[in-house]
Amino acid sequence: MNEAPSSYRTTDLGADQGSDLGADLSVERSAERGTDGNGDGRAGPHRTRVPAPASDAASPLARPLDVSIVIPMFNEVENLRELVDRVGSALAPTRWRFELILVDDGSHDGSAALLRKLAEDNHWLHPVVLARNYGQSIALQAGFDRAQGRYVVTLDADLQNDPADIPALVERLERDPGIDVISGWRQNRQDKALSRRLPSVLANRLISRATGVHLHDYGCALKAYRREIIERLRLYGELHRFIPSLASEAGARIVEVPVRHHPRTRGTSKYGIDRTFRVVLDLVLVVFFLRYRQRPLHAFGGLGLWLLVPGGAILAYLLALKLLGQDIGGRPLLLSGVILVLIGAQLIVAGLTGELLIRLYHEGGRQPQYYTREAREPGAHEPGAREPGAREPGAREPGAHEPGAHEPGAHEADADEAGASEPREREVLVREPSQRGPMNGGASR
After folding, report:
1. Lower CB density within 10 Å: C or N end of the chain?
2. Which uninterrupted H or E stretch holds 183?
3. Would the CA dihedral through 142, 146, 150, 154 be positive or negative?
4. pTM
């Protein structure tokens, strides 16, 4: 089996805690992506598997996890303890088995030590410490590689996203098999208007128009995914902002719902106005992938023809003048025609080279050209899912809460008092990938 090296180095903390959840340090990478034997079209790129110890295989706790919560963080030590407490309070009363994967992206404020201590007290907390600061996209990918749940939820570590919104998102995914991704929408965003909200509005409109995936809030970190969608994605650079677009290209059906948003009370923001320019460059990359990844000749060859045709016409015109006896050696038009023809020919050759490479990518690397959707009846549950209301052995009765857990409706009441009374049922259904026309690139990823 081929092995692909990881693009990051990690240190897993708290490996002796939560062994019942299969959180040991042995990692095994799958080097092939393709549909599994069930024919449901699930595929994943070089997934990191964390197998459960053999001694726990027969334990009731050895069942697959329901929810994996992935949170990247950088220098958020002031928020860590409350973040872990609030995630536990939001998920513990539910019927789901869950894990919290906190990815420390090279923090230097003592976050690793605190994560180790918190993991000793919470068996469902799985800290991952990256060897250096790689960026939010790589930190998310490190968490995705370790996620074991049927559903994967992401949010920021600054506590501006509310962990109490997680159960509603997961419940919606479990209830509606026609939805693969739920993207949060911070309608009542608690950020500065000029430096944060205005650039975000402009970026959201630009990204929506360019990619064909229309969302109000690409920047909201609170999102929920089916695991098979996450397995089809691979994040590089700073592509975390474009996960909905990449997921849509991979066949996901996306819904956008309002979520709560709180002002930052501790720590400092890691975002600035300079990221706007990087977003534009990343958008060029994403649009190219969405439109031309399956047909690079149409991109390079099309541009090449636009240059080759006028260049050829110029040279033909000059040739006619030469045949009529006129001197063309000193005309700038001659140099222009030659340059246009040469550049156009080079672009066409580049497109042909891209066609060969994309065939090697799919055939030599056995990467899937398309994905299929499992035909599920409305209300049907995925394999391993429990029926609504079912509880595992030892689970608390409905209404019973852990010490410190929020009472049902407490966050909703707080939100109403703060003026965040936006309708919770409002949502935006993104167009199906098959309706995007040229955005499909001829085939799904």
Report:
1. N
2. strand 181-185
3. negative
4. 0.70
